């Protein structure tokens, strides 16, 4: 999958409260994503 809209607002980082080390990184907003070998973009009410 190719995200096609990487920006700080689409990346959520959580930290471990005890060590303050990065615990998890999550990508959000796959609205204009496409499959790497596909030709179609995602559309409203579709699931990839």
Verbal overview:
By secondary structure, the chain is mainly β. The protein has no helices and 2 strands. It has a two-stranded antiparallel sheet with strand order 1-2. It is elongated and about 45 Å long. It starts with 10 loop residues before the first strand and ends in a 21-residue tail after the last strand. The mean pLDDT is 81.
Key phrases:
0% helix; two-stranded antiparallel sheet; mainly beta; single chain; 48 residues
Write the layout of secondary structure elements.
Layout: E1 11-15, E2 22-27
Antiparallel strand pairs: 1-2
What is this structure, in a nutshell?
The protein has 48 residues and is mainly β.
Could you give the distance between the termini? 9 Å
Query: SSE order, as H and E?
Result: EE
Q: Strand order of the main beta sheet, please?
A: 1-2
Q: State Rg.
A: 14 Å
DSSP, total strands: 2
Average the pLDDT over all residues and give the rounded result: 81
Q: Give start-end ranges of low-pLDDT stretches.
A: none
What's the tally of helices? Answer: 0
